[in-house]
Amino acid sequence: MLWSSRSKKKRHGVLLDYPSPGDSLCNECDAACCRSFPAVNITGIEYNQLRLIGATRLQFSLIGRHKLLIENGCEFLKEGKCSIYEQRPNVCQRFMCQIK
Ligand code: SF4
């Protein structure tokens, strides 16, 4: 998957089977992935955890995946960083990007 961030750098994103090793790219990045997708799929447990910490852009589904809506930027993105980094959803933990 390719997308371009505000900095116009081309990035390549991969969803790993396990949490992404290290966060050095997150420290350098302008959070392109947190603004570049419509939603993050979340589990029922994550839905409840995010609701408890104040998420307002959650989408509950009886037949599909629950979602954290991040279109136009995730509500937990603060000053270019994830404000719930240690509690971020599993998909966010497994997402890895590379600058092309
Ligand atoms: S929860 Fe954190 S890592 Fe996941 S999209 Fe939102 S700001 Fe980004």
Instruction: Give the low-pLDDT segments.
Output: none
Percent of residues in helices comes to: 10-25%
CA-atom Rg in angstroms: 13 Å
Instruction: Quote the distance from N terminus to C terminus.
Output: 12 Å
The number of distinct β-strands equals: 8
Mean pLDDT: 87
Could you state the oligomeric state of the chains shown? single chain
Strand order of the largest sheet: 1-2-8
Order of helices and strands: EEHEHEEEEHE
Mind explaining what this structure looks like?
The protein has 100 residues and is of the alpha+beta class. It has one domain (2-99). The chain is built from three helices and eight strands. The strands form three sheets. The chain has a three-stranded antiparallel beta sheet with strand order 1-2-8. The protein has a three-stranded antiparallel beta sheet with strand order 3-5-4. A hairpin with a 6-residue loop joins strand 4 (58-59) and strand 5. The N and C termini lie close together (12 Å). The chain binds iron/sulfur cluster. Iron/sulfur cluster binds at residues 34, 40, 70, 74, 76-77, 82, 84, 88-89, 92. Iron/sulfur cluster is lined by residues 34, 40, 70, 74, 76-77, 82, 84, 88-89, 92.
Q: What are the defining features of this structure?
A:
single chain, 100 residues, alpha+beta, three-stranded antiparallel beta sheet, globular, binds iron/sulfur cluster
